[in-house]
TrEMBL record:
Lineage, broadest ranks: Bacteria, Pseudomonadati, Spirochaetota, Spirochaetia, Spirochaetales
Lineage: superkingdom: Bacteria
Residue ranges constituting the NAD(P)-binding domain according to the UniProt record: 7-184
Signal peptide range: none
Annotated protein name in UniProt: NAD(P)H:quinone oxidoreductase
Organism from which the protein derives: uncultured spirochete
Length: 286
């Protein structure tokens, strides 16, 4: 059985490869698919074959997927280009006869009001009609998304956001990655869509957890969209980038990431890391 992982130089892909090795998948059975072959030293040191697989260049995908049985498609990082990129990978997987494609999507991608949802929804729809056996892993937020807020709170004691009383059911990237590795090597998952999430918390709970991790008082400051845009721009974001962050936060206020569930715990066979432990780990990584 040959397993391949896209984005394997990235944070998520690297963790999945590490978990596959932890689960005793031989290095000779894992192909690390990379966007940039100058970043592969650590993968080669692990004994893995690396292959160029650029989501924007279908010919690289056709070559990269030769002989691959099971593929993890880690969603791309270029918002706006991703639907085309993902459909390129799925089409190449179909041509190569991939027997299972596992795709990392977003919480409730089919109904979510998140500005990130349409590309994931489009990918899921394309995947379902592609004829390639699939599993969809709808990941909630990474807890690591808050590491910048945490660093700022270390000096300011404030976590600011335009999410009102919105809630998030984040989990650590490493837990989502372990779940992905388990699904990739496991049986009985084809055709399933999993909603992967951790415990649900609001931003007052986030501030409380940040206080614990930083060892100083931290409070949540709720602001409206205009105030938030202004302060993000004052911190150096472009108007477009600030607008995007605010749109994400407003979708959180609307409940797009609020739903916890048991799928992640079931796949892991244990409780996912708590918010506090996830925040602690994210600080250790930076
Ligand atoms: N749920 C969440 O909270 C959350 C948060 C952030 C991201 N995400 C999603 O999860 C994905 C993985 O996250 P991550 O933290 O691992 O991101 P990351 O560290 O930025 O990794 C992204 C990977 O994708 C590769 N890549 C980028 N463009 C590509 C292309 N055109 N063709 C092939 N590979 C390409 C990158 O390679 P290079 O570095 O060489 O370009 C890198 O290996 C992201 O891409 C995004 O879709 C989810």
């Amino acid at each position: 059985m040959i397993y391949a992982v896209t984005g394997s130089t990235g944070a998520f892909g690297s963790l999945v490869i590490q978990r596959l090795l932890d689960f005793k998948v031989p290095a000779s059975s894992i192909v690390a698919l990379v966007h940039n072959q100058s970043k592969t030293a650590h993968l080669v040191n692990l004994g893995l074959e690396t292959r160029l697989a650029d989501y924007d260049q279908p010919s690289t995908l056709d070559r990269a997927l030769q002989g691959v049985d099971r593929l993890l498609l880690v969603s791309g990082s270029e918002v706006g280009k991703r639907l085309r990129q993902h459909t390129n990978v799925i089409s190449a997987a179909k041509k190569a006869g991939v027997k299972l494609l596992v795709y990392t999507s977003l919480s409730h991608a089919d109904t979510s009001v998140s500005p990130l949802a349409p590309e994931h929804k489009g990918t899921e729809e394309f995947l379902k009609t592609s004829g390639v056996p699939f599993v969809i892993l709808r990941n909630n937020w990474y807890t690591e998304n808050y590491s910048t807020d945490l660093k700022q709170a270390r000096t300011t004691g404030i976590i600011e956001a335009a999410v009102g009383t919105g809630k998030v059911a984040s989990a650590s990237r490493s837990d989502y990655a372990e779940a992905a590795a388990r699904v990739l090597i496991g049986e009985g998952h084809a055709g399933r869509t999993y909603e992967l999430a951790g415990e649900t918390w609001d931003y007052n709970a986030l501030a409380k957890a940040a206080s614990e991790v930083l060892g100083r008082p931290v409070v949540y400051k709720t602001v409206n969209a205009a105030q938030r845009t202004q302060s993000l721009m004052a911190a150096g974001l472009s108007q477009d980038a600030a607008g995007f962050v605010v749109a994400l936060e407003q979708s959180i206020e609307a409940g797009s990431l609020a739903q916890a569930g048991e799928d992640l715990e079931k796949l892991l066979g244990r409780k996912p890391k708590s918010l506090t432990d996830g925040l602690k780990a994210s600080l250790e990584l930076t």
